[in-house]
Specification:
This protein is mainly α and 344 residues long. Helix content is 70%, strand content 0%. Helix 2 (36-47) runs parallel beside helix 7, helix 7 (94-125) packs antiparallel against helix 8 and helix 14 crosses helix 15. The two termini are 44 Å apart. The mean pLDDT is 81.
Length: 344
C-alpha cells in the first residue's frame, strides 16, 4: 500500500513538474513502481498460506528493483557532482527512463498473471475442503488483480499512443493511467481495512459459535417414516453436533456421502422428517446460527458479511435471500427489533 502510494505520488509530481523549480526533489525519485507487484504477490501467497516455490525464491522477485536502484543512484550522483540542470538531466537519461518503463510494464503483466495462477491453484486445491475460512476471501484478491491487469493494459495503450502519435502529448498521454493508479490506491486501502476488520470479527464469531448448539425447529410429520428415522437422526447429529452446515460448500452429494446414502434418498429422508427441501433445511440451520449472533449485544456493530460467512453462507446476498425467505424479514430488521428492548 505504501509503495503503491509512492508510485502515485511520483507520477503526479512528474505531471505537476515541481522538480523543474526544485531540482533536488529529483533525489527523492526511486524505482518504487517495481515494488508493488512483488510485494502484493508475496502478500497473496502469505495470506492464502500457499506452499510453493515463490517464497523460496522471493529474493529474485526484487532483482529488477535493485538493478534500477543502482542505476538511479548513479544518475543522482552524476546530477549532483556535475551540477547538471534539470532539463538537461531529463534529456540525458530519457532513454533510461523508457527502458525502465518497458521492463516495469512487462514485469507487472508477469506478476499479475503469476498471482492469479496462485489464487486459482489454491482454490482448486481446496475445492473439496469441508470448511475453509480463507477460500471465501480470494474474491477481493482477484478484484485487485483484475484492476491491476486493466491498469497494465491502459498503461501499455498510453505508452504506445505517446510513442506513435505525431503530436507531442508528453505526460498528458498517461493521465488516464495515473487516475487509474489513484483509484487503485483508494480501493486497496479501503478493501484492506475492511478485510482486516472482517477477519478479526470472524475470529471472534468463530469462537462464539464453537460453544453454541444450534437446534432449529421443524414441523413434525403427521406420518413419520420409521424406516428413514435412523438416517434422519444421523443427519441431525452431523448438523447439530458437528456443525456441517458451516461448510459453505456443503451440498446434497457431500452430505449424502457423510451419511453413506444416495443423494436422492437423502432428499427423501429430509422431506419426510423436516417437511422441506434440502436447501431450506440447510439454510434453516445457518439462519438459526446467524440469529444467535445477531441477538448478541457484543456483535451489534459487526459487519453483516462477517455474520453471513460465519453462519456458513458464501456471500451476503445468499444470506439475505435465505434469511428473508425463512423469517420474512431482513437480518438488519431482525437485529434492530431485538435491540429495541435493550434500548428502552
Amino acid at each position: 500500500m505504501i509503495f503503491v502510494s509512492m508510485v502515485v505520488l511520483q507520477l503526479w509530481m512528474i505531471f505537476i513538474d515541481p522538480p523543474y523549480f526544485y531540482p533536488y526533489l529529483l533525489l527523492t525519485f526511486l524505482p518504487y513502481q517495481l515494488l508493488p507487484g512483488p510485494l502484493f504477490l508475496l502478500f497473496a501467497v502469505h495470506f492464502l498460506e500457499w506452499q510453493g516455490n515463490i517464497i523460496k525464491r522471493k529474493f529474485w522477485l526484487f532483482i529488477p528493483f535493485w538493478v534500477f536502484m543502482v542505476v538511479y543512484m548513479g544518475m543522482k550522483l552524476d546530477v549532483i557532482i556535475n551540477e547538471i540542470p534539470y532539463d538537461v538531466a531529463y534529456k540525458k537519461y530519457f532513454s533510461v527512463f523508457k527502458v525502465e518503463e518497458i521492463i516495469t510494464l512487462i514485469y507487472s503483466f508477469i506478476l499479475v498473471l503469476t498471482c492469479y495462477r496462485v489464487v486459482r491453484n489454491f482454490e482448486r486445491h481446496h475445492r473439496e475442503k469441508k470448511y475453509d475460512q480463507v477460500v471465501s476471501q480470494t474474491g477481493w484478491i482477484k478484484k485487485v488483480l483484475g484492476m491491476g491487469l486493466a491498469l497494465c493494459i491502459l498503461w501499455l495503450i498510453s505508452f504506445l499512443f505517446d510513442a506513435v502519435s505525431i503530436y507531442n502529448w508528453g505526460n498528458y498521454a498517461y493521465l488516464p493511467t495515473w487516475f487509474g493508479f489513484s483509484i487503485l490506491v483508494i480501493y486497496i486501502g479501503n478493501t484492506g481495512f475492511r478485510q482486516t476488520s472482517i477477519l478479526k470479527e470472524r475470529q471472534t464469531l468463530h469462537q462464539f459459535g464453537k460453544n453454541k448448539t444450534i437446534d432449529p425447529e421443524f414441523t413434525a410429520s403427521e406420518k413419520e417414516d420409521s424406516s428413514t428415522l435412523k438416517h434422519f437422526q444421523k443427519i441431525e447429529s452431523l448438523m447439530r453436533d458437528e456443525k456441517k452446515y458451516l461448510n459453505p460448500h456443503l451440498d446434497l452429494a457431500l452430505l449424502a456421502e457423510e451419511v453413506s446414502i444416495s443423494p436422492n434418498y437423502l432428499s427423501k429422508v429430509i422431506n419426510s422428517h423436516a417437511q422441506m427441501h434440502f436447501s431450506d433445511y440447510l439454510n434453516r440451520y445457518r439462519v438459526t446460527h446467524a440469529k444467535e449472533m445477531l441477538q448478541t449485544e457484543a456483535f451489534k456493530q459487526y459487519d453483516m458479511l462477517s455474520i453471513a460467512l460465519e453462519a456458513g453462507f458464501n456471500s451476503k446476498s445468499a444470506f439475505y435471500a435465505a434469511f428473508k425467505k425463512l423469517t420474512a424479514q431482513t437480518p438488519g430488521s431482525y437485529r434492530s427489533h431485538y435491540e429495541k428492548p435493550n434500548e428502552s
